[in-house]
Amino acid sequence: MKTYINPQFSEWHGLTSRPTKEAQDLQKTVLDVFARIKIDKDQALIDFTEHFDKVKLKSLEVSSQEIEEAKALISDELKEAIQLAASNIEKFHAVQQEQVQVIETTKGVSCWREFRGIENVGIYIPGGTAPLFSTTLMLGIPAKLAGCVNTILCTPPNKEGKIHPTILYTANLIGIKKIYKVGGIQAIGALTFGTETIQKVDKIFGPGNQYVTAAKQVAQNFGVAIDMPAGPSEVLVIADKTSVPKYVAADLLSQAEHGIDSQVILLTTCEKTIKEIITEINTQLTVLPRAELARKALENSRGIVLNSIQECIAFSNLYAPEHLIFACEKAEDFIPKIINAGSVFLGNYSCESAGDYASGTNHTLPTNGYAKNYSGVSLDSFIKKITFQKISAEGIQNIGPAIELMAEAEELFAHKNAVTLRLNDLKQ
Amino acid sequence: MKTYINPQFSEWHGLTSRPTKEAQDLQKTVLDVFARIKIDKDQALIDFTEHFDKVKLKSLEVSSQEIEEAKALISDELKEAIQLAASNIEKFHAVQQEQVQVIETTKGVSCWREFRGIENVGIYIPGGTAPLFSTTLMLGIPAKLAGCVNTILCTPPNKEGKIHPTILYTANLIGIKKIYKVGGIQAIGALTFGTETIQKVDKIFGPGNQYVTAAKQVAQNFGVAIDMPAGPSEVLVIADKTSVPKYVAADLLSQAEHGIDSQVILLTTCEKTIKEIITEINTQLTVLPRAELARKALENSRGIVLNSIQECIAFSNLYAPEHLIFACEKAEDFIPKIINAGSVFLGNYSCESAGDYASGTNHTLPTNGYAKNYSGVSLDSFIKKITFQKISAEGIQNIGPAIELMAEAEELFAHKNAVTLRLNDLKQ
Q1: Is residue B380 part of a domain?
Q2: Is the CB of residue A205 less than 8 Å away from at least one CB of chain B?
Q3: Given its phi and psi angles, is residue B18 left (phi above 0), alpha (psi -120 to 50 degrees) or beta?
Q4: Which co-factor is required (chains A, B) (predicted)?
Q5: How far, in Å, CA of B193 to CA of B172, rounded?
Q6: Is there a catalytic annotation at residue B93?
Q7: What is the tens place of the pLDDT at every residue in B248-275?
Q8: Do B413 and A349 touch (CB under 8 A)?
Q9: Phi, psi of B317 (to 5 degrees)
């Protein structure tokens, strides 16, 4: 971690930069895979899975027998933990449901919004050694609460053609019925175009490697929506004398272990604090299985001493972190100043791991500065808000003359005429 | 308008297709303009405006004198009409503000969302003969309610270097202070990268021609968000014996006059109704100034007789119209069945023009089938929802063991350790 003591404001912009990665242009690769899926459908998926995942599948769909086997493989303790997390995530997202409010904007003119779940949603869960069953909860639970009719989960099989049991257990727990063994570009292609087995969806959610990310980007050109632009995970911690250095160090490391392109930023008002935290990081690193990844991520990372907590918040707003841990006793006093962040953790006990797994908030959040213009995943992400209006004879008489004038000023005379005809009939 | 009598369900999918337009690949053109703007900033804007809009500007910014001149040019009647519309739009969008709700998901674990306006937003208003001052209201009012700090409006000047007075009057009325004379790709480039005069924004809103649409698409690759994918405007009307044929005809025409790529769809349960409406369309067309545009749009349009209102709604959900006019007396009984639509107009007096201008609902809506996966513009579009959590010592003791188990199962040991350290301290 590089440290900077009281950098000039003119240097701040440079200090908010993310580690740049050579963006490989994968568009052609994606379009080639998509073209094959449009023609050969299921057979294309089976072929790509054999090629990329080194397993020849007989069936793309996970069977109920496989679900039962998965259940038997999970300890009761882990089941209870997952259930607690699911319950908290459900509680937090359930209150995001809005009530229909009818507004009479002018007498006789009633307007309101109704909420409908997006009918068909796809959830992508990456494979690999660390099975992200927590993401299954974060995406599957709001989909269920939103009333999405079809929730389809795709995740790549291992070389034995199996899905990790924690993913199957979790998906089953929250009621996802359609689980398919397909990953990478081909999974996104299947969700975009549909095959004999996998239904086309309206919106695709979930994290993934650079191929999945590129495929989601391209899928948008074929009428599918996606959750948000993807980027490496990141945390910014604001610490002062009231912070506990070993907790801060642990929080920074829990971000750094995600991958070498993760970024951690430490802001503090106190040079001594930064030294103590770096010492703690080095101690804790020695026992971490993913220490190598974390060490490389820390090379991209910055510890910055600033003059005040206000300055730390101003820097944080400029950086717009995915996660902001505000590890100070008085953190709550500064909430109104926090403008750009995905998710905020206040005080010494609100560690990022809590939000990653079990406190109830969603862990699918905007990265790479997108917290300036995007929100994290919530119930909203699975819902459409449709406006309705019911105008009475009195209502059109009240607003009709204004519409006629405005339509005429925009030179849209058919728009005007639609009102004039009605008003004339009401004059009789 | 082509008519179809009771088409088979297998034909429905084809009947929901939009008029295909040869999508010109404008990406290179956009990138060239963007590259020039990044280097030459204001000078590039002035040069492009001279080239495309045929006017050499001395200043990009609209002056307060120009605003005063515009005010003097608008009739009092039109001012009052705009004020009525603004008031209704404000009423409808103001109630979309959510209250902060703190949820204790587990004892000691408090989670909530706070709402922050996107700091910098850009509004694009096209030029041309029909000045879309109504769109200024639809985008500027929710931006103001959301608390966006900087709202920047760009619109192309005419050959005299002027902006239409209705746009200036409207923007000024709702408090937009920064209005710039720049249109097309160069306006989107200026909002994306910033120049000496025009500030870079976080999100760009507004309609435009194919160049503007392409530029907004490309801008997304540079960290800017956009309101939604753009497409030609469209309406679907469901009519039965309780509908008034001349009103339905007027509503279909008010959509068709937008442009030759607009689409109108008429669904009805009654063959006689469709004939009466087509007769009315032909009568009304004779007196419309934009009859030629409307006539061409009608060539892409369809009148379809179906067996029941339920079938009409099922077809409408498949088509997912931007505007759905449900011109039947019993329309309200069917609201729960409406799943995919941008904005819905119920009964004989709720004409689309009302929502376009003055009822209060937003007219920036998803087209081209995107009502399946996108909502129209609302207060949400100008807001970020940030999750917060505050966990007490008791809270982390309650959920900590679950987090440890889940992190371990995902093989993320630093995530686990962040909890373990805290729990160990609390055991002492």
Answers
A1: no
A2: no
A3: beta
A4: Zn(2+)
A5: 25
A6: no
A7: 999 999 999 988 888 899 999 999 999 9
A8: no
A9: -65, -35
Q: Judging by beta carbons within 10 Å of its beta carbon (0-12, 13-18, 19+), is residue A280 exposed, middle or buried?
A: buried
CATH of residue B62's domain is 3.40.50.1980
Nearest Cα of chain A lies from the Cα of B307 at a distance, in angstroms, of 24
Q: What is the pLDDT averaged over residues A13-31?
A: 83
**Interface test with chain A among B412, B413, B416, B425, by most A beta carbons within 10 Å:** B412
> Both B46 and B92 in a single domain?
yes
Kindly determine whether residue A351 and residue B422, on different chains, have CB atoms separated by under 8 Å. Answer: yes
DSSP string, A205-232: E----HHHHHHHHHHGGGT-EES-----
B76 found inside a domain = yes
**Are A279 and A184 within one domain?**
no
**Interface contact flag, B415 A257, Cβ < 8 Å:** yes
Range of the domain at B408: 392-427
A415 is in an annotated binding site: yes
Residues B32 and B8 occupy one common structural domain: no
User: pLDDT tens for residues A47-92?
Assistant: 999 999 999 999 999 999 999 999 999 999 999 999 999 999 999 9
pLDDT beneath 70: ranges in chain B:
20-24, 129
Query: Which residues touch B214 (CB under 8 Å, ≥6 apart)?
Result: B26, B27, B29, B30, B185
The pLDDT value recorded for residue B408 is: 96
Within A174-287, where are the H helices?
184-193, 210-219, 245-256, 271-285
A164 noted as active-site residue: no
Interface of B with A in 8-67 (CB under 8 A): none
Same domain? For B186 and B272 the reply is: no
* Set of chain B residues whose Cβ sits within 8 Å of the Cβ of A203: 373
Report the gap between the CA of A58 and the closest CA in chain B (Å). Answer: 28
With contact defined as beta carbons under 8 Å apart, do A387 and B376 qualify? yes
Contact state of B250 with A166 under an 8 Å Cβ cutoff: no
Q: Give the HSE-up count for residue A20: Cα atoms under 13 Å, Cβ half-sphere.
A: 4
Among residues B196, B226, B256, the one where a domain terminates is: B226
B220 and B320 assigned to the same domain: no
Question: Do A403 and B357 make contact, defined as CB atoms within 8 angstroms?
Answer: yes
Q: Chain B within 8 Å of A416 (Cβ-Cβ)?
A: yes
Percent share of chain A, pLDDT over 70: 99
The model's confidence at residue A20, banded by pLDDT at 50, 70 and 90, is low
Cα–Cα distance, B198 to B201 (Å, whole number): 9
- Which one of B244, B353, B391 has the shortest CB-CB distance to A349? B391
Is B131 domain-assigned?
Answer: yes
Question: DSSP states of A33-60 as a string?
Answer: HHHHHHHHTHHHHHHHHHHHHS---S-S
Q: Are strands B225-226 and B203-205 parallel, antiparallel or unpaired?
A: parallel
Q: How many domains does chain A have?
A: 3
Provide the pLDDT for residue B260: 85
Residue in B354, B396, B409 nearest the CB of A166:
B409
A410 chain-B contacts, CB cut-off 8 A: 130-134, 166
- pLDDT for A231 equals 84
Task: With respect to residue B189, please indicate whether it lies within any of the assigned structural domains.
Answer: yes
Q: Which of residues 229-288 of B touch A (CB under 8 A)?
A: 229, 244, 246-247, 250-251, 253-254, 256-258, 284, 288
Is the same domain home to A260 and A220?
Answer: no
Biggest CA–CA distance in chain B, Å, is 88
Q: Are both A48 and A167 inside the same structural domain? A: yes
Query: Which candidate from A91, A384, A407 shows the least CB-CB separation from B105?
Result: A91
- Of the three residues B226, B248, B276, the one that is the final residue of a domain is B226
Query: Which residues 162-191 of A have a C-beta within 8 angstroms of B?
Result: 166
B113/A91 Cβ within 8 A = no
- Give the closest residue to A74 by CA, choosing from A114, A142, A6, A131: A131
pLDDT at A21 over 80: no
User: Do residues A92 and A209 share a domain?
Assistant: yes
